[in-house]
Automatic annotation (TrEMBL):
GO terms for biological process: selenocysteine biosynthetic process; seryl-tRNA aminoacylation. Pathway: Aminoacyl-tRNA biosynthesis; selenocysteinyl-tRNA(Sec) biosynthesis; L-seryl-tRNA(Sec) from L-serine and tRNA(Sec): step 1/1. This is Serine--tRNA ligase. InterPro entries: aa-tRNA-synt_IIb, aa-tRNA-synth_II, aa-tRNA-synth_II/BPL/LPL, Ser-tRNA-ligase_type_1, Ser-tRNA-synth_1_N, SerRS_1_N_sf, SerRS_core, tRNA-bd_arm. One of its GO terms (molecular function) is serine-tRNA ligase activity. The lineage of its organism: Bacteria, Bacillati, Actinomycetota, Actinomycetes, Micrococcales.
RNA sequence: GGAGUCGUCGCAUAGUCUGGUCUAGUGCACCACCCUGCUAAGGUGGAGUCCCGAUUAUUCGGGACCGUGGGUUCAAAUCCCACCGGCUCCGCCA
């Protein structure tokens, strides 16, 4: 949820943000109007309620003969309070719905426009020149199947399309990668956490996933629970309804969880292999920081993601995602995209979002400061996930179909240097 | 799945039977000050969260919050209903 005070003080900033996102500017005026109605309704109710309270007190002390008369008056007053209370509730609800629809205020400097309007911040590493090396690179599925590491046929048989088994080297590689990610995160202050993967509606909604992208989320109708698409969700919910202490610095968590995504609307996209699947595993950074420290923390997360890519010896580029492609919660998002030889292009491997106070306002996560209790900023970022196996296999493949293991991963694979 | 029991301002608890004097008491912890000659004790005061308004270094007024949501009533922490959560026991099960 956005900051109402800020919206009232500077609505043009929010209109500009909506423009950059390609969103609806009129929404801003709807919220302002709803706020006026809400305040009027609340005031009317509270005045009546105050009157009723003092009246009610008199009745308690009244003599029997006074009582009769007072009761009659109190009764009409009571009815008025009830009616005004309903009106106030309705106005409050209408306002809540309006403001909940406003996505986060985009940070200055984020490129405007849709998915294709991203800005490339830097490109690191050189893609291999397979032509010079004298062989045609295979894609990750061909490599994975030959190694007995990836089995999508049986995944489809058992669970349907976009499901897979990781077997042998595949399982080892994923666990190794995730353990490396967890270690790097832990060294940098992210406390490892294994989270629930089913969450209540208020947590899923609070993190902003039930807005525009609600059809991406699996829902368990019978239990009114949602399967998380990332441990960002349960980690954001971790401190829900709490006043946390950030006086000793940020709270940093490294979540490890399975992730579930419906991939609605991506029919026909990336259908081969394990690039886009319904279920995968991920190690995710999540930080709660003081508002003013959010942008520094964002850079810090990005630096750790780049460290991971470098440890896996992958060529990549970093992009500043355009406003229209941000999602409701994010005020800015950086993606790291790794080179995928079989596709001859960079593909998203990590994402880190600065959600400023958007999530914490909904989830009621605050800290105590000299100025009172204020919402904290939340940030999240990928450390590693199943998708990483794609560029790792492809970039490190050798002419004979074997795959060289990046040095940083070897300790996690029992010293294994080559998968063959 | 069944039975019992509990849910109160950081923690621990009183208050619920018998609705109004609860503007929620007490202890611990916390903060400020005072007193005290010694790593302590005592005294005084303060202190929660959210919303609305006025005024804005701030302060003041009003309202809401006793697990959540309904209901009864002039009036609900207190009575009624539903739900959620904790604990104990029974049954069933990976």
């Amino acid at each position: 949820m956005i900051d109402l005070q800020l919206l009232k003080a500077d609505p043009d900033r929010f209109r500009a943000s909506q423009r950059a996102r390609g969103g609806d500017e009129a929404l801003i005026d709807e919220v302002l109007q709803a706020d006026v109605s809400r305040r009027a309704a609340i005031q009317a109710f509270e005045d009546a309620r105050a009157e009723q309270k003092s009246f009610s007190k008199q009745i308690g002390k009244a003599t029997p003969e006074e009582r009769e008369r007072l009761l009659a008056e109190a009764k009409t007053l009571s009815e008025r309070v009830k009616a005004l209370s309903v009106e106030a509730d309705e106005a409050e609800t209408a306002f809540g719905r309006a403001i909940a629809r406003v996505p986060n205020l985009v940070i200055d400097g984020v490129p405007a426009g849709g998915e294709e309007n991203f800005a490339t911040l830097r490109t690191v590493g050189q893609p291999r020149d397979f032509a010079t090396e004298g062989f045609e690179p295979q894609d990750h599925l061909a490599l994975g199947e030959a190694l007995g590491a990836i089995d999508t046929a049986r995944g489809a048989k058992v669970s349907g399309s976009r499901f897979h088994y990781l077997v042998g080297y595949g399982a080892q590689l994923e666990l190794g990668l995730l353990n490396l990610a967890r270690d790097v995160a832990m060294r940098n202050g992210f406390v490892p956490v294994i989270t629930p993967t089913l969450v209540k509606p208020e947590v899923m909604g609070g993190t902003g996933f039930l807005g525009e992208h609600a059809d991406e989320v699996y829902r368990l109708e019978a239990d009114d629970l949602f399967l998380v698409g990332t441990s960002e969700v349960p980690l954001a919910g971790f401190h829900m309804d709490e006043i946390i202490d950030l006086s000793e610095g940020p709270k940093r968590y490294g979540g490890w969880s399975s992730c579930y995504r419906r991939e609605a609307g991506s029919h026909g996209k990336d259908t081969r292999g394990i690039f886009r699947v319904h279920q995968f595993q991920k190690v995710e950074m999540f930080s709660y920081v003081h508002q003013d420290d959010a942008e520094a923390e964002h850079e810090r997360m990005l630096a750790l993601q780049e460290e991971m890519l470098q440890l896996c010896e992958l060529p990549y580029r970093v992009i500043d995602v355009a406003a229209g492609d941000l999602g409701d919660s994010a005020a800015r998002k950086f993606d790291c995209e790794a080179w995928v030889p079989s596709q001859e292009r960079y593909r998203e491997l990590t994402s880190t979002s600065n959600c400023t106070t958007f999530q914490s306002r909904r989830l009621k996560i605050r800290e105590r400061t000299e100025k009172g209790t204020v919402p904290v900023a939340t940030l999240n970022g990928t450390m590693a996930n199943t998708r990483w196996l794609v560029p790792i296999l492809e970039n490190h493949q050798q002419a004979d179909g074997s795959v060289r293991v990046p040095e940083a991963l070897r300790p996690y694979l029992g010293g294994l240097e080559v998968l063959r």
